[in-house]
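User: Sequence in, structure out. Go.
Assistant: Echoing your sequence, followed by the structure tokens.
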Amino acid sequence: MKNKIKILSTCVYKFKVSNYKNLNKKLKSEIYKLKEENQEGIYRSNYGGWHSEEFYKEHFKDLREIISNVFSKEILNINGIIKPEMLWTIINKKGSYNEGHTHGRDTYYTGVYYVKIPKNSGNLYFMDTNWDPHLIASYTDIYKADKSIKEVEIKSEEGDLYFFKGKIPHRVGKNFSDEDRISISFNFKYRGILKQMKEKGIKWD
């Protein structure tokens, strides 16, 4: 089921993945194994949390298929399947959060899927599209945005799958729980979409 949410000056699409409990059980096992293999991870917007490398074809096969089907049929409304260019996962332990950022203007759509969301582990915040992602100094402390910046809070729940434009600024609140918060994010870049469409002979009206 698709929910179209009007947020500030744009739209965000929300879906509930069926049988998500079994899917998340498999994903958690895979994610923690990846963390064991690369405990340092990489830094992007994450503060204190673990961020995996970007995966272009490998890992999260079942979820990758779900994301591809939903994006192609519900967002693009095309006959054919377009796959995300990359996926990555983030584990936010207690005290961790994600600073305000965008996924760049070369990203048509981005999104997130929630694997594990304990109570008080941090919600998703969409920020005014006029906000400059380079103005990190506008944060008054390590987890709360300056009140002059308009933003909308979205409650994060396990099994939820969100799609939104890559240029929309967003952040993740601080994890106040004693458990890990786990999510998987992805990007659909313009060039990747057009390349796949050309290779597969798909028309995009």
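User: And one key feature?
Assistant: The CA atoms of residues 83 and 177 lie 34 Å apart.
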